[in-house]
Write a structure and sequence with these properties.
With about 450 residues, the protein is of the alpha/beta class. Helix content is about 30%, strand content about 15%. The chain is built from 13 helices and 16 strands. The radius of gyration is 23 Å and the shape is elongated. The protein starts with 7 loop residues before the first strand and ends in a 14-residue tail after the last strand.
Length: about 450
């Protein structure tokens, strides 16, 4: 990546970041700083999207209307056009609607508009809600193939212990793999919000799997976004060109340089934050949509041979299916769970395994759109494809799921490479336990 290329940056703001917890009045000082930061990033040539909350702080339609009026007024003073996008999970469950949303984002960004995204709480029912704006921001970041997702919160970063009650709590600055992270996530969020730190870790896992660098930092100082982006871009430039010149005093003036300037010294101390590194083999486009855009209507249990075949890009045949759970129809999404013969480690069972593995050796490995209903799969499981017609009376396909309709979550090529210049890193090699709840 060139250090001077224009970036796509998604900024997520929770209710507690922009609304006073007791009075429920907007925090105008914070909103103003956020607007100034977003406009500066835009003037530097970057594409900016804001994922904002407003429904919990004031009742849905009233809250969103009031908040958008504020956004429009604040951005209007700086002559920056904005647009509101209201989404529910139902809007992205259909592949065509998902692509329409992608095209809408692309068109607005090309027009120089800053989109402001909200969940459409006024119409959403529980079954089609994202549940929290952290998840919405991660899906938005993946949808637009963002470079950065900033999850703004009321703390500077993640800590290995609760900093409010432990004076020796140490910041976690770089995370290579969310599933191996050991951090204190006991905070359940404010009275205004729908999530806490645990939902931010789920969002970080979603976004990094799509190749998005994800950052947790304090919302009360939005200017940190610019400095953190500079620092991250300088690290990338340093990796590409280790001979790049050191900083001069003029370079150190944040107003005199682009946010993506490669001249920033990679060793300069950035604002305190936690940075989650993107997956080197990201899941994007249709594969990401299959995994995270669709709600699973059931589960298909497969054997290890079927799993190996899926990894080798083959489709899912009935012979590799050992069980069915739930009541799903044709062309609905299901979870794929491997029935493993390997016995999980006792420590893994005690701590909670990040791969959704329980004591019986079941591992959730992906999602699939199926060609047959649950009742039909139950009848043909374990059989050869040539037997499907004689059992069901017809055979739409020899596959229960075509490979193009299967998306796997796991990477089989080992751990990620080590992180350069990372003073405090959580990774596989740390032997740390997972604190992230599995995605449902």
């Amino acid at each position: 990546m060139r250090g001077n290329r224009h970036l796509t940056i998604v900024i997520k703001l929770g209710s507690s970041s922009i609304v006073h917890e007791k009075t429920h009045e907007p925090l105008l000082s914070v909103l103003t700083l956020i607007v100034e930061t977003a406009v500066k990033l835009h003037k530097d040539g970057h594409r900016v999207i804001i994922v904002s909350s407003g429904a919990i702080a004031a009742l849905a339609a009233v809250g969103q209307c009031r908040l958008m009026t504020l956004w429009d007024s604040l951005f209007g003073h700086l002559r920056q056009p904005i647009a509101q996008l209201l989404l529910t999970r139902n809007d992205i469950a259909d592949r065509t609607q998902y692509q329409n949303a992608q095209n809408t984002f692309a068109e607005l960004l090309n027009m120089g508009v800053i989109p402001i995204v909200n969940e459409n709480d006024t119409l959403a029912i529980q079954e089609i809600r994202f549940g929290d704006n952290d998840t919405l921001s991660a899906i938005t970041a993946a949808m637009v193939q963002a470079d950065y997702l900033f999850l703004m919160t009321d703390v500077d970063c993640l800590y290995d212990k609760n900093p409010r009650t432990n004076s020796d709590a140490a910041p976690i600055e770089v995370v290579e793999d969310v599933s191996s992270l050991e951090a204190d996530v006991s905070s359940a969020g404010s009275n205004l919000g729908t999530g806490g730190m645990s939902t931010k870790l789920v969002a970080a896992r979603l976004a990094t799997s799509a190749g998005v660098t994800t950052v947790i930092t304090r919302s009360s100082n939005p200017g940190n976004i610019t400095n953190i982006v500079k620092h991250c871009q300088s690290l990338k430039a340093k990796q590409l060109d280790p001979s790049s010149r050191p900083l001069t005093p003029a370079d150190d003036d944040p107003l005199s340089r682009s946010t993506a300037s490669p001249q920033l010294d990679a060793m300069t101390k950035p604002p305190l934050h936690t940075r989650f590194l993107p997956d080197p083999e990201p899941i994007r486009d249709r594969s990401f949509w299959l995994l995270h855009g669709l709600a699973a209507h059931g589960t298909i249990f497969i054997d290890e041979g079927a799993h190996r075949a899926l990894i080798s890009k083959a489709g899912l045949l009935p012979v590799g299916i050992v069980g069915v759970e739930g009541d799903f129809a044709q062309q609905e999404a299901v979870r794929l769970v491997v029935m493993s013969h390997r016995v999980p480690r006792l420590s893994s069972i005690a701590n909670g395994d990040s791969l959704n593995q329980d004591a019986m050796g079941k591992i959730e490995v992906g999602r699939a759109l199926v060609n047959y209903s649950a009742a039909e799969v139950m009848r043909i499981k374990g059989l050869q494809s040539t037997q499907i017609e004689s059992v069901l009376g017809y055979a739409d396909s020899e596959y229960v799921a075509l490979r193009e309709n299967v998306s796997l979550t796991r990477r089989e090529k080992g751990n990620r490479p080590a992180t350069p210049n990372a003073p405090r890193t959580a990774s596989y090699e740390d032997g740390t336990k997972s604190s992230v709840e599995s995605l449902k």
